[in-house]
Amino acid sequence: MDETMFIDPQRCIGCRACVAACRECGTHKGYSMIYVDHLDRSETTATMPTVCLHCVEPTCALVCPADAIKTTEDGVVLSALKPRCLDCRNCVNACPFGVPKYNTAMHLQMKCDMCFDRSSEGLKPMCASVCPTGAITFGKYEDIVPLRRTKPVNAHVFGNQKVETKVYLMLPTDANDVEVDGCGVFEGRVRTEQQPASESWIDLQVEQTDKSNEF
Amino acid sequence: MSKVQNLEKIIDAFGPHLHDEPYGGWRADRVIDKVVPTHCPYCAVQCGMNLLVENNHVVGFEPRYDFPVNEGRLCPKGVTAYLQIHHPDRLLHPLIKRNGVFEQASWDEALDLVVSKFKELQATHGKDSIGVYSGSSLTTEKTYLMGKFARAGLGTRYVDYNGRLCMVSAAAGNNKAFGIDRAANPWDDIPLSEVLLIAGSNCAETFPVLNKFLWQQRDNGGRWIIVDPRETATARQGDLHLQLKPGTDVALANGMLHVLIEEKLIDQNFIDLRTNDWEQTKAAVMRYTPQVAAEITGVPADRIVQAARLYGRAKTSMLLHARGIEHHSHGVNNVLSYINLVLATGSIGAPGRGYGTITGQGNGQGGREHGQKADQLPGQRSISNPEHRKHVCEVWDLPEAELPQAGVSVVEMFQKMREGEIRGLLSICNNVMVSLPDTNEVRRSLEGLDFYVCIDFFMSEGSRYADVVLPGSTWSEDEGVTTNSEGRVVKINKAADPPGEARADWWIVQEIARRMGREKYFDFDGPLALFNEMRVASRGGNADYYGITWEKIEKQNGVFWPCPTEDHPGTPRLFEDRFYHPDGKAKFHAVAYEPPQETPDDEFPLILTSGRVVYQYLSGNQTRRIGFLVEQCPEPYVEIHPETAMTLKVNDGERIKVVSRRGEGVFPALIVKTIRKDTIFIPYHWGEELAVNQLTNPALDPISKIPEYKACAARIEKIHSRQLPILGEKRKGMSRSEVR
Predict the structure, then answer these.
(1) Which segments of B623-704 are extended strands (E)?
(2) B-chain residues within 8 Å CB-CB of A47?
(3) What distance in Å separates residue B613's CA from the closest CA in chain A?
(4) I want to staple B578 with a disulfide (CB 3.0 to 4.6 A). Which of B154, B343, B452, B584 is the partner?
(5) What topology does CATH give the domain B606-718?
(6) What is the pLDDT of residues B142-185, one digit of tens each?
(7) pTM value?
(8) CA B166, CA B31: separation in Å to the nearest integer?
């Protein structure tokens, strides 16, 4: 499979069509594996989709004691194999992007497998099919990148760890790596008296619904 | 007559209840025996989608990659649209209200009651005592039937449709400026445009898939100028945001035109050859210097100059506008003032150069073309034009004396109900208790009716007031055409039969007409027969559908009207060589700025504006029942700027009372910097005590009769409520997967 995903946050309109469509995927029918977050609703309408970035050396697989998380030849990191999954949630806690979910009822980790049932038949994954703006796009590097005025970046630096991913983030043209500081926390915004004392409740609402990693 | 006495029981029986699963649950082992290519039931992008059918049940969807408009894309409403088909709230039997309680009835019983009541009212109070109120989410065949039903079936002049609340200002503005009412360009033109001027449209939320074309334009190096009082998702992504005070569009557009003239960015050759009334317009905008415009609109003068230069210097540009400029007591003037910019730069009638209205409802365009509008006959003909009347009467074989004259707009119809002139009402495809302005007055209108019959597939907030509710069909249970916002006629296909005793809408309406003794005019055996008669009725009119056939639509992925003959391919781009006024020219209109009917004062110091969210569609009768959509946006809220909130000592998430001269409502505050300090915003999709339309102003535009939803005066009162906004599903010990 030469295709991969391209995530362009500036195009995201926060509609969550991807979140809804993800539930139609055959391997986790009814459950969505995508997150769409308001960055800070009190300041801006900006939103950001998070899908599995399909790491070249996936942290989730590295920490799995049962070797239940496999990567395909094409570099797609699959959900935990049901017979092997030990119910330990190491992967859910270890993923630097907060992607895998834990299905309490089935005692099973679940994550995006790039719609393996669709992409193996030449169809685009559900989220990239429906995304109205192309904030999530599926295609070949050479087909997508020349069309855009953004730079594809697939290196994420978390302190000492550098994570290379199959999925690209489309960033402003001067970006190199996505750098997160040693503790994995972005520089906090300095609050002034005028600003609301806490995160907007709209952000919290999302926290309650699709941001939680357990369901 | 039609009071709602036991609201809780009605909600208990008919919802809205939340439902979030396909028929038979989420299953991966489906055996799909039919894939039906069709379109989304919601907005006027009319995205293509495939419905997956298993044993006559729609069980899912699949992206329709081969439909050129959306190429598989859908918004969250489109993705979850199929979940409404087997929703437990579906109306499965005719209902008759007896002693305030809806009781199941047979079709014969219900229809005979409707017919006897209509006959009785018309015998006592005259033909015009019955009103018909229709909608534009119906297929064009059905909208044609509704117009014919009112005029030839009931013989009443009082028929109107919910497009009156939607974009009738755009329609009137188009007709005045261009002599025809349709978007001028196909959306394929958008990516070819250097600059887009998007006025009063948060298309990111209201028309999500249009953003495909907007971003293609952007990838080509294009720029966007966004006019909106809020920094919406659309405005955030744009290059230049003109954050004007609601209702001051004329001043802004006139200010921009002033700059275009001063800086010689107009196309004098185009103006001389292809337009009329330039001199008056030029004279009228002379006093709108950027400083004057800035004072009225609150947009800094240099931004107005910047916008005019960006727009005027572009080799190709397009104007797109929507409800934000249309929902005003001077909505038509707002539209005309922006069209003046298009005409002055001569940027129309060529690839990448043009003009488009962003229609609201799925069939907002088709629904306003074929005779369900108060003053209109099929083919965008006028009911007061003798020649037009003659043509339609010939097609219908109706004596001309029997064809009523023009009626009145829907807001005026509801006034006539309160005055007792209209005593009976048939409504289909609308939800008056959510979507009409000043819902408290609307409730009085409904309660004063002698008889109210509603055709619907879910019990809407409006249908609760009905005496008879007839169970109709969803979009997937019937076939017919719709016309999307670019003027492309597309075909909706039937996927499965209606559930229970629900019937196709056209059958219900025709059956009432037949039982009224008008079977001579109503012997259609299905939507195709309706379509074919409509083609003939529209022949020679502005909206000429004569050459469109269902087969041609399927073959060409849609046909753009006008399409006068069967060998005509359709007309994607209008105005390439002529406009539709008799002399072939377009018209400038000199318009002066007038403030909204209500402006802030000491008692009501804020401007209240209303709008939509991406998760709900119109009055929410369909989308407020779908779990996923409701979870994303469970209730309306009021957006307030932090500085305004500080002065009023309002905290984020605190429930506050918003009061206008007409009513009040309690909403949680969403404190955001993305709105003007003098403006507050509430989305409108909810009914009863959650309806922003308890507060909005029913002041009408004098030409289009559109109500002023987008600007009224309001104030905020603290109620010291401790109730928090409804958060997402609370986990009470069990996880969500375990609950399921």
Answers:
(1) 638-640, 655-659, 664-671, 679-683, 697-700
(2) 233
(3) 9
(4) B584
(5) Barwin-like endoglucanases (2.40.40)
(6) 999 999 999 999 999 999 999 999 889 999 999 999 999 999 99
(7) 0.94
(8) 41
With contact defined as beta carbons under 8 Å apart, do B535 and B541 qualify? no
Domain-wise residue ranges, chain B: 7-84, 184-357, 606-718
Residue B134 · residue B108 · CB < 8 Å: no
- Report which of A43, A46, A34 is spatially closest to residue A10, judged by C-alpha positions: A46
Residue A46 at interface with chain B, using a CB cutoff of 8 Å: yes
A-chain residues near B63 (CB < 8 A): 124, 126, 129-130
Q: Do residue B73 and residue A130 have CB atoms under 8 angstroms apart?
A: yes
In words, the CATH class of domain B7-84 is mainly beta
CA distance B209 to B75: 7
- Minimal Cβ distance to A196: which of B231, B642, B668: B642
Assess contact for B173 and B199: CB atoms under 8 A: no
**What does the alpha-carbon distance between residue B575 and residue B584 come to, in Å, rounded to a whole number?**
9
How sure is the predictor about B591, in pLDDT bands with cuts at 50, 70 and 90? very high
* Contact across the interface for A205 and B727, Cβ inside 8 Å: yes
Closest of B366, B460, B337, B469 to residue B139, by C-alpha: B366
The alpha helices in A4-132, defined as continuous H runs, are: 17-22, 59-62, 90-94, 116-119, 126-130
Residues of A in contact with B72 (CB under 8 A): 124, 129-130
φ and ψ at residue B82, rounded to 5 degrees: -65, -20
**Tokens read off for B91:** 């109306």
Distance between CA atoms of residues B56 and B54, nearest Å: 6
**Same CATH topology for B184-357 and B606-718?**
no
ipTM confidence score: 0.94
Angle between helices B301-313 and B331-345 (to 10 degrees): 50
Let me know how many helices (H) and strands (E) chain A has, helices first: 7, 9
Whole-Å CA distances, A117 to A78, B49, B50, B439, B470: 11, 20, 18, 49, 43
Separation between Cα atoms, residue B326 and residue B487, nearest integer Å: 19
Query: Could you name the CATH architecture of B184-357?
Result: 3-Layer(aba) Sandwich (3.40)
Cis peptide before B562 (omega within 30 of 0): yes
Structure tokens at A88: 């330990």
> Encoding tokens for residue B62?
């699949």
Which of B626, B638, B655, B672 is the mutation pick for testing A, counting most A CBs within 10 A?
A: B672
Can you tell me the distance from the alpha carbon of B507 to that of B520, in angstroms, rounded to the nearest whole number?
A: 15
Name the residue of chain B whose CA is nearest to A10's CA: B237
Q: Using CB atoms, which residue from A20, A194, A195 is nearest to B80?
A: A20
User: Hey, what domains does chain A have and what are their CATH numbers?
Assistant: 3-55+115-208 (3.30.70.20)
Q: Which two tokens stand for residue A180?
A: 């997160």
Chain B residues touching residue A27 (CB < 8 angstroms): 28
Chain B residue with minimum CA distance to A102:
B737
Chain A environment of B673 (Cβ under 8 Å): 42-44
B538-582 per-position pLDDT tens digit: 999 999 999 999 999 999 999 999 999 999 999 999 999 999 999
Name the β-bridge partners of B679. B607
pLDDT digits (tens, 9 = 90+) for B330-382: 999 999 999 999 999 999 999 999 999 998 899 999 999 999 999 999 999 99
How far apart CA B176 and CA B170 sit, in angstroms, is 10
Contact between B727 and A201 using a beta-carbon 8 Å cutoff: yes
Give the C-alpha separation, A23 to B629, whole Å: 13
Find where tokens 């779908």 sit: B626
Instruction: Pull the structure tokens for residue A7.
Output: 């995530």
* DSSP reduced 3-state for B456: strand
